[in-house]
Give the backbone structure.
Amino acid sequence: MTSEKKDIRALSKEELRDFFMSIGDQAFRGNQVYEWLWTKGLHSFDAMTNISKETRAHLEANFVINHIKVDSLQKSKDGTVKNAVKLHDGLVVESVLIPTKKRTTACVSSQVGCSLDCKFCATARLKRMRNLNPDEIYDQVVAIDKESRLYHDRPLSNIVFMGMGEPLMNYKNVLEAIDKITSEEGLGMSPKRITLSTSGVPKMIKKLADDKVKFHLAVSLHSAIQETREQIMPFAKSFHLTDLRESLEYWYEKTNRRITYEYIVWGGINDTTEAIEALVRFCNYVPCKVNLIEYNPIDDGEFQQAPDRVIQSYITALEKNRIPVTVRRSRGKDIDAACGQLANKQ
Ligand code: SAH
């Protein structure tokens, strides 16, 4: 049920302080409530024990505390955990906990559905319903951190924005969420442990550079040939590779941080020598590394992962040009938790 009352978690600390002053209370009350909401993660006014009963009633009358609810949880044989996350208005997104020997990574969503139209991605078929709020993004991370402690006896170590949605099409909220995640009042995580993955929105990549963000950037490239990229990612007609390249040069100039290119190799699409050479050329523009990712089939077989020997040709060509390359194997495939499989099937 949606409410007329305002979501108190949509207020910044400054706004909370202003609110308390406006009702003739003291500004520091805002700090106290902020701490309950964010550092302590409370979801009820009643439990805010250092706030007077009267004030709590006043808050109750004016605000709600919206928050997510992990609706169902699926565990994969490989330890991957997928959460179906219910939002306050009943919509659902998914987020994933991916454990490896050395780290536990949260893969979080930034939109309900997606603004873009990548043909190989299950989420793209859902269309974009709405952007997630900063607190809805933050809450996914908190939920996965708890699960990490519960199931793997260690806190979350990394975050990737590779769930549902295009984070750069929800720029403001994603950055606000990252601010909370990295602030001492939030989770105090280092931005170096966060990677934002984008399909490649040049204007917003430049904005990230201007905003001097401290996290890592990954770009889902999949082809360095304009024509091919347009076929598999139709939005690329409006976001041309030459503009993408220019924005990445700008990013590097301002941040000095190299970019990761995510790249799937499909038979009949980008399995040619020409495709490999184009990628090598593209990689020479800006310091980068390439992550060759395993394709997770989503349905009818229009897209098929290329055979290993083609992947090997990519690796050989990249290594010959001293471009670091890794191969990422899928995790959580048995529960549809792998990249590109998030589509609220349940
Ligand atoms: N919109 C952002 C983040 C979400 S997708 C982006 O495009 O980067 C996260 C990653 O999963 C991207 O690299 C995307 O290209 C990849 N992906 C999408 N569908 C996939 C599939 N079926 N198999 C493997 N990876 C997929």
